[in-house]
Amino acid sequence: MRVSVFGAGYVGLVTGAVLADLGHHVTLIEVSEEKIALINQRRSPIFEEGLESLLARSIDQGRLSITNDAESVVGSSEVIFIAVGTPPLPDGEADLRYVRQAALAIGRGMHGHPRQVIVNKATVPIGSANLVEVWVQDGYREVHGRAPSSEWYTVASNPEFLREGTAIFDTLYPDRIVLGADEAWAIDRLQELYRPILEQSFEPPPESPRPNGVTSVPVVVTDRISSEMIKYAANAFLATKISFANEIANISERVGADIVQVMRGIGLDQRIGGRFLNAGIGWGGSCFGKDMAALTVTAEEYGYQPRLLHATQDVNREQRLLVIKRLQEALKPVKGRRIAVWGVAFKPGTDDLRDAPSLTIIEELLRLGARVRVYDPIALDNLRRLRPDLEVEFADSAEDALDGADALILATEWPSFAEIPLATIADRLTRGIVIDGRNFWDPEAARQAGLQYRGIGR
Ligand code: UDX
Predict the structure, then answer these.
(1) Exposed/middle/buried for 140, CB within 10 Å: 0-12, 13-18, 19+?
(2) Which are the catalytic amino acids?
(3) Whole-number Å distance between alpha carbons of 208 and 212
(4) What is the pLDDT of residue 90?
(5) 162 C-alpha to center of ligand 1: Å?
(6) What pLDDT shows up at residue 260?
(7) Which CATH number goes with the domain that contains 79?
(8) Distance between terminal CA atoms of the chain?
(9) What is the pLDDT of residue 123?
């Protein structure tokens, strides 16, 4: 199938590369010359496990290309994905400027053959498909002076649920595919596009072997609005699960319970499920915060106060600063103390700093007058580039961050941190204080190593 994808960002790149690898002919449409140049050199503009080799293979086999000339390619595409950024505006609402530009370009390039499915892949506010329709018409009208026939195209919603770090795996082996459209022919077209995934009939790429037991993928066919809502509801539920774990952690530590045991005890109940119940400094990343804010704004626009959504966000906001309270309890004044921070990425496996809890913690440490020395295996370059305002020292290694520090805060649970013996941490820290924001270490082992150790909720 001929497919074009607006936006060579996270979602667009992964979707485009996977669809090309499955045998479709994909053109990425991108405005940034820098990204185009990188991709043409078979290099990925973002860090994502396995993406670079997938891109290179698809480009070499002639199934994937990239251009900035939208109008020349969109006209011949059977499926057009809009996967551009929708950054939050100051009030939390999503900025649809790039979606509009894409939709206008689609309208300008449209000529009725083939019939086209325009798919919103970007997470857009509920009801945005209607806007895309209007913008497509505007684009066509600019060129032809009249509206296009409504027979020629339809706008569908097909949200992605991919996690950074496992995006290719999540695209090939999703828990479900959600297709929202008001026209049966559009649903048929998208089912055809995804058939290799739905039926698991493709040869798995070497980097992403098929997990045992995955023989097919369920599809949820629904109307457009419900599909848009599914994306927000999924992220809101996951964020709520984490905030719930954090709230129970806060009660657990007051009564003397261990949150890790408590969550294991509830997670084995199949109605609850054990994932996304890790207590700590809370959630961050490009999606949860933005989507929670957008869903809250939508609810309020319709005169509904979403109390649970507010509570989930409130718990998360406070949770980030809990490690500072712990630090103050152990160290008393933080002013003039040297604090090591391990991990700045919002989670392991990525160099992404968007809405990272570590940044809130570092800002607060600096505000309190601490000297902060940070280490992250891959995200330090981004920290240097994106937050030059943060006056922190950059360490060359995890051990190096500890030298001369009074205390260590762990903000991201990179697996490589487990390779450093607790005894080494105890030796290097002048006061041996460890505040574990991700319940990464075993408290007993840490104490035996001579550390003054505090986790979250235990
Ligand atoms: C998320 C959704 O999982 C994905 O489906 C959606 O498409 C985009 O948003 P992502 O942002 O990549 O994906 O990260 P995810 O793995 O979900 O983690 C989000 C945040 O929650 C991270 O900061 C992580 O550290 C935190 N988290 C996760 C917890 O604090 N506890 C947990 O138990 C799980």
Answers:
(1) buried
(2) 287
(3) 12
(4) 84
(5) 10
(6) 98
(7) 3.40.50.720
(8) 53
(9) 82
Residue type, 376: D
Residue type, 324: I
Global pTM reads: 0.94
Note whether ipTM > 0.85 here: yes
Q: For residues 326 and 339, give the distance between their C-alpha atoms in angstroms, rounded to a whole number.
A: 13
Domain end (from 165, 180, 211): 211
Which ranges of the chain have pLDDT less than 70?
A: none
Cβ–Cβ under 8 Å, residues 131 and 137: no
Pocket lined around ligand 1, Cβ cut-off 6 Å? 160-164, 235, 238, 242, 276-278, 280, 282-285, 287-288, 346-347
CA separation for the pair 256, 251 (Å, rounded): 9
Query: Domains in the chain: how many in total?
Result: 2
- pLDDT for position 70: 95
Domain boundary, last residue among 211, 233, 263:
211
- Determine the Cα angle at 61 with ends 57 and 67, to 5°: 85
233 and 207, same structural domain? no
> Which residues form the domain of 279?
223-458
For residue 234, the ligand 1 atom closest to its alpha carbon is: 5
Is 80:156 a contact under the CB 8 Å cutoff?
Answer: no
For residues 267 and 170, membership in a common domain is answered with: no
* Residue 49 within a domain: yes
Instruction: Please tell me whether residues 23 and 127 are part of one structural domain.
Output: yes
Which residue positions form the known binding site for substrate?
A: 161-164, 231, 276-280, 284, 347
Q: Is residue 218 part of a domain?
A: no
What is residue 436's predicted lDDT score, i.e. its pLDDT?
98
Residue 93: predicted pLDDT: 79
Most informative mutation of 240, 288, 319 for ligand 1 (most atoms within 8 A of CB):
288
Q: What is the pLDDT of residue 89?
A: 85
Residue 303 burial (10 A CB sphere; 0-12, 13-18, 19+)? exposed
Instruction: Compute the distance from residue 245 Cα to the ligand 1 centre, in Å.
Output: 14
CA of 354 relative to ligand 1 center, distance in Å = 12
How many residues does the structure list for the chain? 458
